[in-house]
User: Fold this.
Amino acid sequence: MELLTSAGEIADGRVPLDAVVPRLLDLVVPTLADYCVVYGDGRDPRLVGVRMAGADPAREAAIRRQPPHRPPAEALLLSERELAPFAARSGVLLPLRARGQPTGALLLASCEPNSYTPADLRFLQVFAGRLAVGLDNARLLTAERQLEALVGALEDAVAVLDGGGRIVMANPAAARLMQVDSVEVLIATPPAQLWERFALYDADGRPLAAGDLAWARAREGEHRPPPRLVRRIDRETGDQRWLLLKSSILRDDRDRPVMAMYVTEDVTAVRRAELGQRLLAEAGRILSSSLDLDASLQEVVELTVPALADWCGLELPGSGGMLELAAVAHLDPAKVAVARRLRARHPVQLDGDGAAPGVIRTGVAFRMDNISREMVRAAAVDAEHLELLDSLGLSALLVVPLRSGGNVLGALTLVSSQAHRRFDDADEAVATALAQRVADALRNARLLHDRAEIANVLSAGLRPESSPVLPGCKIATVYRPAGEEVQAGGDFYDVIDTPSGSIVVMGDVVGKGAPAAALSALSRVTLRTAGRLTGQAAAALDELNHALRRRGAMSLCTVVAIALPTELPGSAEVLLAGHPPPLLVRDGVVTPLGESGPMLGAVEVAEWPTVTVELAPDDVIVLYTDGVLDSILPGGDRFGEERLRRLVERTGSDVEALAASLTAELELLRLRDDVAMLAIRCPGPPALLARGTLSDGTEPLLELRLPGGPEAPRAARRALAEALGGRLSKRIEGDALIVVSELVSNAIRHGGARTPGADVSVHAALRGAALRIEVTDPGPGFDPGGHGPRADGGYGLLLLDRMATGWGVSGSGPVTVWVELQ
Assistant:
């Protein structure tokens, strides 16, 4: 009994294994045996300790070299052969059991024979059981101390909770995480009391309760709660931490949770870096992948919630010196409308005292934490304003400038609506980087807009008129530059007024895109200037040829020029400079016109054959560029001359139908080059009062033949005044008398009616709401566009432009000038 008592006192669970084993061996030897060997767990048998009655190092070494004994099922008496390594005469091998499991074996040996009787075995079994419990307690204590040392060395916070939810073990990292002085204080404090200091939110910003933690979920039956990312905010300091909570639940045989181990990793630095990088990367992708800047800005502010703030606004200077809320996002999507209503009812001036205006003016970020209810009340201008502010929530504010290229373009406003959330330096750094990306996108978008606007203006100036005017003629055009969103290319056309009529030109320069558009603009200006100054199509081609030669760098251009008389139908002259021949459509028959000459810019001195064509009423002339012919059909074939000819034949004299049909064809074609087409339908003789061909819907007022000479203008005024008889307003009648005087004066001065022998005819009639006046003289006529002065006096055409609703010139020798006043 003394041995049993001593064994219990030695192995009471307060001494570790390495100290217990020697003391137990001392208790056994020499009281119970001359030799004692303790073997470890049978699953991994090993010698734990050996003790001999006398010092014999050689024999002890020999014993240690022997294979360890596995625990027997029950006590065994050993034979002398089995005891030979011990030089013993008798011995016993006893199993060591604890908690129902084998934990090792105890070998006792004596130098005397028959030292152990069957009666001794019962006592030895009891003693071995007491020894096994002691060794097991020592092992547990050692394991506990090792575990405590291991857990204490971990950087992650570790806490073990029992079945009642109390902390039974923790490491210093857990104490630091929960902001208590020591592990002892942590263990002594109820967990509920520890968590009262903190507000918890999930990764999406939703508040968490105690029931959302793993232990509570395990008690509700969840077996393997997954790791959970939690944002923890200190209610006192506003300190914000990202924690990764991992848990392991131990259950009893009834599947009830009896213990839980929490491993909490502080991932604040990693999470912030990850969130910042992800936020900036995603914002960069959004801002660079869309041309819809407004939508991109809205997506960017939505990225910040809840990762960076509870709500976010992007403010840009607007019209009238006000700040505009360009984009806004809130943790509660329903609050977005509240934010916009707040700005609509309480606009912010750019020169005001608010945070955002100040940041835009100074370029310095603004941060305010711990915004109290009293501060919000003081900032509100009325009860409605206060209600809107309260509904949005305002506990912390961070405003950073949108800075790019040295300029501040606006402000990014971040707001915390949670009572304990604060903004720190890390938040400001991420917000500043985000604001710079937004500002760069804004700056680039504005530069792109400005450049696009400049390009559109320039392109519109380079693009030929869609509806050029040729008096009396119907004109239809098709113009399609190759390439997407290109407004002007290398093809062009123009109608040039000359003293003797008009010159219609169409050209195609070498190249594509902007260089071709610039060269086509040069070609148009040169042709127009030379054509108006000389009135000769050949002279215009020659001048452009020299201009292109001077320019060099493969400046080449093909042109077709058609000189038309003042009044159509009549004689037309066709000149080709390397250009596809125009088509003449007469009575459904299509005929190419012209004889080809050299391309402009190719040779220094060139001549272009002139082919004269007599045009008849309803004749159609079709000018086109080779881009029409070279377009590719869906099957891969070229559109070609024959298809164009059939298209022209099918539409006949209807130029608008021709343009519509070609446009429809182009939708199915792949353009290899710019496309241009211009179709002109010649009119019949113009209807005139003087010719008796203008009678429908008219009320004749005056038909007068006057002898030429200086008295004719006065006579014409007097006759027209009598014919009007006060039927029109004084203003219109006054304008009519000035017009008839000017036209008769022109007939005398420029039309050859200087003497009484050369007559001048004056006709007047009412046409609906218009008064028409015609003056006919025997002269050669003149160019309606020739507004410039002459040596013998001007035509007074500027006066007609100002006073008349419409006017024109018809014929030559005699010539009729007509004017209509509304």
